[in-house]
Model the fold of this input.
Amino acid sequence: MAFRVIDGEGERPPSDFDVRIAAQALQYLTIELMRSLARGDDSKRRVTEQLVELYRHLGKPGITVDTVVNAFLHEAHPELTKAEMSDNERDDADREIEHIVLASLQVAAEKLCWDDAAQGRTSQRLNRLESCLELRQNGISRRSRPRR
Done:
């Protein structure tokens, strides 16, 4: 995507436009990696396409990998934790799901590790995931009881 700026006409792109576009490419890459890991293949080469797209953006002058990664995390993490930030009791069910999703991501990440401590971390992450699942089940039971 490119902007053509004509003085006096239209809006100028924001100063961090290239970083935002690169962060979006990293987001799409992450999504396709997760989908491919879940499927077990990348037969349509989506991961490859998104990796090439990210690399194309990272090659621009003034764009650093750290800046792009931080921009991506700054945007993505709140998307995964919307209910977590809420004080509204109606969001409890969503909050429970978010905890399960985040705990599942941690388990998946540790299961892909090969270092000596990975097995211990995986066990810890699995315990956390099991706790989250139990809290979800308890929450469902609690919410299904009639209120007095």
Q: What stands out?
A: DSSP finds five helices and no strands in the chain. The chain has a mean pLDDT of 89. The radius of gyration is 20 Å. Residues 16-78 form one domain.
